[in-house]
Specification:
Length: 469
């Protein structure tokens, strides 16, 4: 009670607001930590950096000063003391500002300097004492690796030492935690053989998207490069570097690799057998087929490309319908062999035959306009009709429409089923246009009477005779 009374009295004397119960047991709050400028050029006349820290606590701040430590690119450090700006110092002041000024030495290394401020504690008259912990700046820029740092340039060069990329994944001794799943999951080592291509982006993870990975070689007779990929062209020792180039911001980052290139992978040949013709009786059914062994040391299992006829399942093929069953075989690539050529094996699954009965008249008069089509199949299945002469005739359902004179070809088809073979029958109808007889006119005479007769075979009436010309 005595401590609380003393505290309240002190607050009343200083003109500060008394503390409420809800303000008890809290850490000092860092309201802001800034430094100006946040980027410095060593060759300029002014290399001073001003720091300001604002911390608040309901019971006041204990510290009269704190220290900022700057850690450079090679572990070198600089330090500056920040002192309170209130005078005389009021330990019960709720909000305290610390300031300091650092004159950067002209001989320091260019680079990104990380900042850390020693912790600041609250006034112990609160009955407890908490610290802020180390204080660091908020994000200032998007420059990867220097988002919160003080940038020190020398003639514009930052020379930032940063892992702009990491890897390779095939070096398992590095113990790197990769962020990109496609890189992280690439656990297969490269194939160091003639004819292969090594792509660094598959094995190195970029950490700065604006900097492309570059590959160079000192053994171009063994492995050549276009700057993006490495082509393995001869047996021997290949020495190459994966790097990101130096820029105004980043220092050169490179990793040297030395590998032995051996003879090229070969393409294996597969011994492929045959499969006898099968019937469509008792479908579905499973048939054991020949086995294919690859020189790579594994069985090559088939893949069926005709799923309505058959399905491949290991060393068996399941037949589900009639027709042609086609299986494909191809061995996968390995560190020693390329993928094999694609082999195909086909066999027939015969279906029961059927008969179709279909006929049409050999000719039809255009004036009749249409003909009813009628065909039957021994299977009893529905028959479909098509024509290959759409200018002469058309088909709607089972009606043949006559369009103009000429040849009309009609095909009747029964598609079949999984166990019955399809069948078709084609017939041709000549569509003709009937023309009336040609009339002939003659002149008949009887005395002074003249009469003209027009018929296909005109004759003069009785008593008349044909007038001579």
């Amino acid at each position: 009670m005595k401590l609380k009374s003393v505290l309240i009295a002190a607050l009343l004397i200083t003109g500060l607001t008394p503390i409420t119960a809800s303000q008890a047991q809290v850490k000092p709050l860092v309201e802001s930590f800034t430094f100006t400028p946040n980027e410095v050029e060593l060759i300029s006349a002014n290399t001073n950096v001003a720091f300001e820290l604002v911390v608040s606590h309901p019971f006041g701040i204990k510290n009269t000063s704190t220290q900022v430590t700057l850690t450079g690119p090679y572990g070198n450090t600089l330090a500056v003391t920040l002192t309170r700006t209130d005078f005389p110092i009021n330990s019960f002041l709720n909000r305290v500002t610390f300031k300091g000024l650092l004159a950067l030495p002209q001989n320091i290394n260019a680079g990104a300097y990380k900042l850390s401020v020693a912790e600041v504690s609250n006034n112990s008259t609160a009955g407890y004492e908490y610290g802020t912990g180390d204080i660091t700046p908020s994000k200032l820029r998007d420059l990867v690796g220097a988002e919160t740092a003080l940038l020190v340039r020398n003639n514009g060069e930052l020379n930032l030492i940063y892992d702009t990329f990491v890897g390779p994944t095939h070096n398992t001794t590095l113990g790197i935690a990769y962020n990109n799943p496609s890189i992280y999951n690439n656990n297969y080592p490269p194939i160091w053989k003639v004819g292969e291509i090594y792509t660094p982006s598959k094995y190195f993870e970029s950490r700065v998207s604006s900097l492309p990975l570059v590959v160079t070689t000192t053994t171009p007779a063994i492995c050549s490069t276009d700057g993006k990929e490495l082509k393995l062209i001869a047996t021997g020792s290949c020495t190459f570097k994966v790097l990101t180039l130096k820029t105004k911001d980043y220092a050169l980052k490179e990793v040297t690799q030395n590998v032995t290139i051996t003879a090229a992978r070969s393409k294996p040949e597969l011994a492929i057998g045959s499969i006898a013709t099968q019937t469509s009786k008792n479908l579905p059914k499973s048939v054991e087929i020949f086995r294919v062994y690859s020189p790579t040391g594994s069985w090559v299992l088939p893949h069926a490309t005709t799923p309505t006829v058959c399905i491949a399942a290991g060393f068996f093929v399941q037949i589900i319908g009639g027709g042609t069953c086609t299986l494909q075989y191809q061995s996968e690539a390995s560190n020693t062999y390329l993928a094999s050529d694609l082999y195909e094996v086909s066999f027939e699954v015969t279906r029961d035959p059927q008969i179709i009965t279909f006929s049409l008249p050999t000719s039809a008069n255009l004036s009749s306009k249409s003909i009813a089509l009628s065909a039957t199949a021994s299977s009893g299945g529905a028959v479909l009709y098509t024509t290959s002469t759409p200018k002469s005739c058309s088909i709607i359902g089972s009606t043949l429409n006559l369009l103009r004179s000429g040849k009309c070809s009609v095909t009747a088809t029964q598609p079949g089923t999984s166990t019955i073979a399809p069948i078709s029958e084609s017939v041709t109808v000549m569509i003709i246009e009937m023309v009336g007889p040609i009339k002939k006119t003659i002149t008949c005479i009887k005395g002074k009477k003249i009469k003209k007769v027009s018929e296909a075979n005109p004759k003069c009436p009785k008593g008349f005779k044909l007038k001579s010309k």
